[in-house]
Amino acid sequence: MTTAGILKEPSFENRVSLTPESASALAKMGIKVIIEQGAGGRSFYNDSHYSSVDIQSASREEVLMSSDLIFQINQPSSADLDKLKPGAVLVSMINPLANNEYVSELLNKKITCLSLDSVPRITRAQAMDVLSSMATVAGYKAVLVSATHLPHFFPLLMTAAGSITPAKVLILGAGVAGLQAIATTRKLGGVVEVFDVRAAVKEEVMSLGGKFVEVEGAKDDKSAGGYAVEQTEEFQQKQKQLIHDHAVKSDVIIATAQIPGRKAPVLITKEMVAGMKPGSVIVDLAASTGGNCELTQNNKTIVHNGITIIGDSNLASGLSADASKMFGKNIINLMKIMITKEGNINLNLEDDILKGTVITHNGEVINERVKGIMQSVVK
Questions:
Q1: How far apart are CA 10 and CA 75, in angstroms?
Q2: DSSP state of 288
Q3: Which sequence positions are flagged as catalytic?
């Protein structure tokens, strides 16, 4: 019988890869599921919640050494990889486009790895897309975090003491996180302006009540799978000036712009920050890849000349219970295409989803984009 193990996340992470509900769904596929003791505690899923659905807890070493499938949101350490049983399949988020050393380690140890942040963005894979799920959580949380730091109300208020104007929120990037941030800001009563290099998202922005600020001349690459792409120098200068003009009038900026495998584009310069109103707030969701704001420090909140700059790429961890529930459901939907009726693992690399998600297998790189990067690194 195939055994699947759920590992406890590092101390900075509050989520768990599979909730009791998801673990139970996996068990119903004919798989024995075990969980590291206390793995779900920071998501408010205790060991007793797992045992109530017949999922038993064990030590980390036991989980690592006895599991055919290993689940962890954040990549396991080198020491953990050494303890995996031969032929084990790791399911995690390893950021393979930028994490060449870890991919090399997986290759050297002949570990099969599915990286959940590489699930193709195609219609059939939407129910497995953890990046979209977690971006939804992060976009929502970013607005709430900004509201707690802003020394102003978000909505228009008519009071006996006079009228309070609504907060002006500028959102950079109208991907999943940006769209959720628009919706949440509007629910709180804020006024929203949105920048994105992809003209195709204009209609979505407007349907949520945001004003789309368009920069002419954007390059849109259909082969990028819906992601943003790098723009020309001329476009970047136009964009920089337009963002500056709107940033200095904003109370809140929520920055979500990222390009897979590359450093995040700097959209908010020191000069822009210097021109912003005292008390304004910047929440930078791209902090872990350098940040959209030039002054962002990853995993830190700083105050620069009266402007609060929050660098946090892991906001989803702050809504650990529901974020874990969404994450787990994404995993289960992925497992449905690789677990046979008999409860065995079947990595059908002819399947477009698995071909994109599997990074390493049998000592080879499977994902085409990662393969190209690894070949260039070797050269």
A1: 9
A2: G
A3: 121, 126, 129, 132, 227
Strands (E), the chain: 3-6, 32-36, 56-58, 69-74, 89-93, 112-115, 157-159, 162-164, 168-172, 191-195, 211-213, 252-255, 281-284, 300-304, 307-311, 358-361, 364-365
Instruction: Give the torsion sign (CA, 292, 298, 302, 305).
Output: negative
Name the phi and psi angles at 361, rounded to 5.
-160, 130
Measuring CA to CA, how many Å separate 309 from each of 66, 247, 251, 279, 358?
44, 13, 12, 10, 36
Query: Contact, 213 vs 193, CB < 8 A?
Result: yes
pLDDT in tens, 126-149: 999 999 999 999 999 999 999 999
As to burial, measured by CB atoms within 10 angstroms (0-12 exposed, 13-18 middle, 19+ buried), residue 4 is buried
Q: The dihedral of CA 28, 34, 37, 40: what is its sign?
A: negative
Q: At what angle do helices 100-108 and 368-378 cross, to 10 degrees?
A: 90
Reading the block at residue 52, the tokens are 């109530």
**Can you read off the two tokens belonging to residue 297?**
């420090």
pTM of the model: 0.91
pLDDT tens-digit readout, 225-275: 444 555 677 777 887 889 999 999 999 999 999 888 789 999 999 999 999
Closest C-alpha to 181, from 281, 269, 283, 250: 283
Characterize the bridge pairing of strands 162-164 and 157-159.
antiparallel
Contact 134, 323 (CB under 8 A): yes
- What pLDDT does 54 receive? 97
